[in-house]
Amino acid sequence: MTITARILAPAIGASLIVSVVFSSVAFAQAAADKPIHIPSPPRSIPFELKDNLVRLEAVVNGHLQSGVLDSGAGALSIDRNVSRKLGLHEGATTGDAAGVGAEIKQLLPVTIASLLAGPLQFENIAGYSIDLGHLSSSAGFPVDLLIGAPAFKYGSVKVDYPGRKLTFGRSGQASHCEATIPLEIVHDVPIVDVELRTTSNAPPVRLKAMVDLGTRHGALVLGGPFVRSEAGKALISQGEAQQIGQGIGGKVHGTRARVAEVRVGPMSFGELEIALTSEIAAFDAGVMDGTLGVPLWQQGSITFDYPARELCINISNGAGRDPAPTSDVTRMR
Q: Is 214 left (phi over 0), alpha (psi -120 to 50) or beta?
């Protein structure tokens, strides 16, 4: 057996839950998480936007459940109460999900015989049973299931926020993208390069951020080394301290501040309010400095193509369309 460290659901709380999971068992996902069929041509279904979460119905072992599509979840997760009501066999704990809030949540491996989420069908899919009570409470609706990496890994997924439409298809079948953003897949979650300019005269800082459909109320949330840097400390001193989210472990506190510019790949989003916090442990793990969240793209659509390692953000109001190159970049590590 090997010791594996992997990121599970930076949005498992679907609001800034970044969790590092240390497992003493190489819990099988491999081909066990691949859909039986990926739609071709692409197929669209409606979704409900609730508290900025992408809510859709899912059928688990023949039972209708309330699911959330979550790019920040590196695995499939099912609420512990739901798991036990369905009679799923829960194995020995593989670790804890620890990210935001004071509580540590235990992870128990499960296997779901049948899962149907929109046009995606899975059989004998591996996942985790975890207490999602805090998430359901803060979101205002029952979150029975977090549908993470298995829905994204093998094709393309487009989330059209104004149209409330999800489109699933094969890699390369997504609609035209004006500015493709290079995507890195680390531990089954999507990571992009971000450049941050704290003031108009400051040199840009280069960071890594996870693209998280579950970061509900912040366009960019940063932690780790950046909040301890001179640039980060200056933003914190000028910002407003407040609660910035809530996840499976409870409330997370930090500071909201404005920066002069945020760039994601070739796209500039101009002046932006961001959140900074020291309460998300995974930002110190060396994989990412923070997360990009729903307010950044909710006026348009976002498309993930994991096999092609591409991300596309199309915004109807014209934001994010300045492809001018940057220079004099500072790397924060």
A: alpha
297 CB-near residues (< 8 Å, 6+ apart): 161, 313, 315
Tell me the CA distances in angstroms from 195 to 232, 289, 295, one per residue in order. 14, 11, 17
Specify the 3-state DSSP secondary structure of 32.
helix
Choose among 45, 80, 6: nearest CA to 151.
45
Is residue 309 classed as helix, strand or coil in its secondary structure?
Answer: coil
Q: pLDDT tens digit string along 61-85? A: 999 999 999 999 999 999 999 999 9
* Residue 260: how many other CB atoms lie within 10 Å: 15
DSSP-assigned letters across all residues of 188-228: TEEEEEEEEESSTTSPPEEEEEEE-TT--S-SEEE-HHHHH
pLDDT digits (tens, 9 = 90+) for 146-172: 999 999 999 999 999 999 999 999 999
Q: What is the mean pLDDT of the chain?
A: 85
Maximal C-alpha separation, the chain: 59
Supply the pLDDT for residue 289.
97
Q: Is-contact 53 246, C-beta < 8 A? A: no
Residue 126: other Cβ atoms inside 10 A:
18
Q: Coil, strand, or helix at residue 117?
A: strand
Q: Which residue ranges of the chain lie beneath pLDDT 50? A: 1-30, 98-102, 318, 320-333
Residue 94's pLDDT is 65
Other C-beta atoms lying within 10 Å of the C-beta of residue 114: 15
Provide the residue type at 102 as one letter: A
Query: Hey, how many other C-beta atoms are within 10 angstroms of the C-beta on 2?
Result: 7
CA distance linking residue 134 with residue 140, whole number of Å: 10
Report pLDDT for 92: 82
